[in-house]
Amino acid sequence: MSRYFREWSVAGALGVLLIVLAIFAPAFFQAQPLLSLAAAEAPTLVIACGMALVIICREIDISVGSQFSVCGVCAGLLAAHHAPTAVALAAAIGTGACLGAINGALVAGLRLPSIVVTLATMMTWREGLNWWRQGEFVYLPEHLQWFGLSQSAGQWTLIAAAGLLLVALALALRHLTAGRFLYAVGTDMEAARLAGVSPQRVKFTTFVTMGALTGLAAMMNVVQSPQVDPKSGTGLELKTIAAVVVGGVSISGGRGSLWGAFVGLLLLACISPALTHLHIEAYWEKAIQGAIILLAVVADGVRTRRKKS
Amino acid sequence: MSPPPLLELRGLLKSYGGVRALRGVDFDLRAGEVHALLGENGAGKSTLIKVVTGAHQPDGGTVSIDGQPVTGLTPASARKLGVACIYQQPALFPDLTVAENIALRLEPTSGFRRVAWAARRTRAQQLLDRIGAEISPEAEIRTLAMPQQQLVEIACAVGAGARIVIMDEPTASLTQKEQHLLFAVVHDLRAHGVGVIYISHRLEEIFGLADRVTVLRDGQSISTQAVAAIDEARLIQLMVGREVTQIYPPSESAPGEVVLSLSHLGASATPTRVRDITFDVRAGEVFGLAGLVGAGRTDLARVLFGLVPADSGEIRLQGQPVHLKSPQDAVAHGIACVPEDRRRHGVVLEMPVAHNMSMAIHSRLFPGSWLRLGAERRLALDFIRDLSVKCHGPEAPAGSLSGGNQQKVSLARWLATKPKVLILDEPTQGVDVGAKSEIHRIVRRLAKAGLAVVLISSDLPEVLGMSDRIGVMCSGALTAILPGDADAATVMAAALGKGSKGKAA
Amino acid sequence: MSAAPAAAPRWKAILFRHETLLLLVLVAEWFYFDAVGARFATLDNTFEIVRHHVEIGLLALVMTPVILTGGIDLSVGSLLGLCAILFGKFWRDAGLSPLEAGACTIVVGALAGGLNAALITELRLPPLIVTLGTYSLFRGLAEAITHGSDTFTGFPSSFLALGQGHWLGLPAQTPVFVVVALGVWLLVHRTTFGRGFRAIGFAPEGARYAGIPVERRLALAYVLTGMVAAVAAIIYTARLGQARADAGTGYELYAITAVVLGGTSIFGGVGSVHGTLLGLAAIAVLDDGLVHARLPREAAGVLTGVLLLLALTGSVAPKLWAARSKRRPAPPAATPPSPPLPTP
Fold it and tell me: Cβ of A176 and B113 within 8 Å?
């Protein structure tokens, strides 16, 4: 119980929110808008999973938003030039992995702090993309939208894909030795090294994984609309970091789970539509999001302080 | 012809910087024996462990395992050869469960293999059962107390099939019951043909457990004896009986009025609980605090310096009770403390000598917070000359100085506060011989000038040679206050918790 | 006694070299843009560059002490937005004069910085995550107060002169910038506070042992950042003639970039305010020069990012090289699991 205490408390908060909605705004629970919401948040979930991995090994990646845009545009351009969907998908994931590898090489190879490295790459990719595309949208061929399926089928596909990925990654993190290395490296690099794990290799791999997941997420976003907005990734890094931190992944590494990231994201994703349904102005969303992040870290801080004394 | 010993060390040499930690150590360990390693702090025990576990490379000498010389030992290859070490502070991952920690040690560390949770748990349970530990494999390490963590370490060693198990003061934090449990484990290991290197300061453990004992002193192996053929008095004599290599400056001061007075002082927010400490220190007196590592001397110093709050008892300065809530309070009351960990707490390595020296007197040297670089430079130059600090001027970063000179910088920082009480925590640790005797002379001079000095040192001859009176601590309590001319064996006996023979002074 | 002989001069030389290098980059930028662009190296244009970068410059200046302590403040851009619209609120809806509104805004900025400081010092939370939370919170409050669309315009021309007018031929905001720059420079380089910041950045525990009031120093750095962010918000409003909730979006990144580019180590301890000013100038000239060189503005972002990475790599390369050639030195004490310090 204590192991997943944080996850359960966030799930509890989500439950309270849903009950409030059920009483005051039952309209929230209409199937179609909920489905759209879930499909729209599916790419974010994929990135949040990657972010959880990165934060567990005591790093951070704030370039995911820019990576997301770059991957989306690359995949979109390929598709617009009549490449099959599979090729576009592979391109998105490949681009993401390459960008992630650059971050990883700088962080693991040169041992630079990830916060500054990804700050620099975030700016470089974002502005580079703007330079290249001048903010132009990429218009996509019909067959790409919803993978050529009907809208609801497409939405279900995306949700299923994100869900499967979450389960697979969560299981891998828990049941593969490689997953356990992540926690070891995040807890204590020196102890991990003495236990025979190479922290630098683990970190590099994690950043590459983060990039590949971002690419996948970008593709999942691309298929949802008839065009690719080169600014679609703006703010994603904060949203995912917030979800992960709220879900109990410790920013100082080594603690937390993907389930936590999942419930954290669910909570944050529900706020905006919940505000609309509760007739609160949607402009409060960001403030509430910030307050939730602070609440989560304050809870952590108070708990560790109490434990110490 | 008997089989070759499990582990054999011949003429081992190792130095760090200029400090020679090992100067020719011979040691051998046979299968199925418990070989105790005994020596004062700094005698070279931990360096020896580091060499055997492959953490550090020796500068000279040979290490043989099963009669085969091994070179270029690394932590991984040492483990492969069957060496395991149980440290005082277990090196476990606090956020992972017991089973996972054991698995991280034991399972191969490559590839994306599946974690066999059931098998892991079963094995962890078996290992824990085998050593008789009542710990759930599912518990997270940080929920466990220190002794339980140690048992997990032992389980790892057992599980790794280690043939050479090193135990570094395993009982330091164990209760009586846990100790018996541990002894049973050690007996069991021995019965299975494992060689155990057992390091402890508790003589009764050595007599109860070990087959042979080797005494280390000043980085050399002094003597190896069968435990059955030796007694406590002889062991203590071997440990401390070094030839006098250093002349300590004689005490010249006549102690004056009581400056620092502690009565029944206690604190629990420290690693070792400080309990019921009562003593006085007079102006012009050097009060030595002897004891073994973990006896609570540094913890007491932290309480006196306001870093840790006291829960009970009273601190009086020149008769006035004081409450110390922060180092700033302590400084304001005239207490200064040269901390033990010079590189982390004593000086800021990256900052210039002058900045380091002025750091504790910012408010006095720089009225209105305004830096007066000229005054600071003069202060630094004065201290550099006064303490003969060898450096390239006040602008040199403290990290570019040798250990002894760094220590002088740290000392200068606190002398600049013009304290009434100076606490010196291991002032000569990791300092070469020349600088060491310089520091001794400085301490003498300060005492003569009327400072009350509390000298914490694990170097027994230093405490004996420098102190006017000696307080001895053991497990957080003061076990004896001895006159300055007490002999080493008496102090050592008190530090080992052997009665309080000389509670005279 | 072999205390590394050339340590002191080399230490200085490296610091010196970083700033000289940056100065060379700046000069090269200047001449390049002068050669390719029309009307770049004119006095008017120089003033325009100054005018457009005063707000980022103010943020970068006060970010310097924060980063010197080993911390970071991601919330400054959002706080600028919040302060801008609160200034508008105070002036338009509360009917205060611009002067009074400005004073109130600075108080709000100090309070916001105090929130960051309280969470960081009282609960010992990592600054990165605390200011990430307030980043979201401050921007969110700004959006909530304006309902996302309300903008404040129609400020009196006497107020707008602060952002658009001239003073002795200089852009009117220059004196504010100079005063803050001088103040921060003196704080960091000429007072005991600056010493405290550095000591905390190098060794927080060591600073505590030396009797430095660590919590109070940290609080000062964050509160100061909040106050100056409010000042930047007022100037921003005066320059654009309007206050909107999205004011200052992304400014925190530019400010951090200027600081790190200027040679301040992200791990704390090492750095200087004049370095920050040089870093800021390099970014500002690049930003403006590319426009004059008929290159898209985005190129400035790309180049800034690349420049930042190069500066970082340059700062760790010698250390890494030394570590490689020495093959893992074995210090007698256990090394803490913290990231390696960059060479100063």
Answer: yes
Query: Domain for residue B345, yes or no?
Result: yes
In-domain check, residue B279: yes
CB contact under 8 A, A174 and B140: no
Q: Average the pLDDT over each of B8-22, B234-248, B324-338, C167-181 and give the range with the smallest value.
A: B234-248
Beta strand ranges found along B171-310 (DSSP E): 195-199, 212-217, 220-226, 258-267, 274-282, 286-290
Q: Name the residue in chain A with its Cα closest to that of B118.
A: A175
Q: Is residue B67 part of a domain?
A: no
Residue of A nearest to B76 (CA): A196
Q: Which residue of A has its CA nearest to C256?
A: A116
Question: How many residues can be counted in chain B?
Answer: 505
- Mean pLDDT check: name the lowest of A131-135, A271-275, B48-52, C337-341: C337-341
Strands B195-199 and B83-86: what pairing? unpaired
Indicate the domain borders of chain A: 2-302
Q: Which of B107, B117, B269 is nearest residue A175 as measured by Cβ atoms?
A: B117
Q: What is the dihedral of CA B64, B70, B71, B72, to 10 degrees?
A: -120
Which CATH topology does A2-302 take?
ABC transporter involved in vitamin B12 uptake, BtuC (1.10.3470)
Query: How distant, in Å, are the alpha carbons of B479, B486, C70 from that of B471?
Result: 8, 11, 41
pLDDT tens readout for residues C29-70? 888 888 887 788 888 888 999 999 999 999 999 999 999 999
Strands (E), C54-211: 166-167, 170-171
| Tokens standing for residue B11 | 């003429």
**Class of CATH domain C38-315:** mainly alpha
Nearest Cα to Cα of residue B302 among B279, B349, B269, B258: B269
**Which residues of A fall within a CB distance of 8 Å from B91?**
188, 191, 194
Q: Which residues of C touch A111 (CB under 8 A)?
A: 316, 320, 339-340
Query: Which residue range(s) make up the domain with B389?
Result: 258-495
Tokens of B453: 């000095």
Distance from CA of B158 to the nearest CA of A (A): 16
Whose tokens are 């002058």? That residue is B354
Residue matched to tokens 């401050």: C138
Is there a domain that residue B466 lies in?
yes
* Ramachandran bin of A235, using left for φ above 0, alpha for ψ from -120 to 50, beta for the remaining angles: left
The set of chains that have 3 or more CB pairs under 8 A with C is A, B
* Segments making up each domain of chain C, as ranges: 38-315
Order of strands across the sheet with B452-456? B335-338, B421-425, B452-456, B286-290, B469-474, B477-483
Mean pLDDT of the C267-292 span: 91
% chain C with pLDDT above 70: 87
Range 101-160 of A in CB contact (< 8 A) with B? none
- Cα B340 from Cα B224, distance rounded (Å): 32
In Å, what is the CA distance from B6 to each residue of B69, B197, B222, C176? 11, 11, 21, 76
Mutate to test the interface with B, among C192, C208, C224 (most CBs of B within 10 A): C192
- Provide mean pLDDT across the span B115-144: 81
C207 at the B interface (CB within 8 A)?
A: yes
Residue B34 has pLDDT above 60, yes or no: yes
Interaxial angle between packed helices C214-240 and C192-202, expressed in degrees from 0 to 180 and rounded to the nearest 10: 110
CATH number for the domain spanning B308: value is 3.40.50.300
Residues in chain C with CB shorter than 8 Å from the CB of A291 are: 133, 137, 140
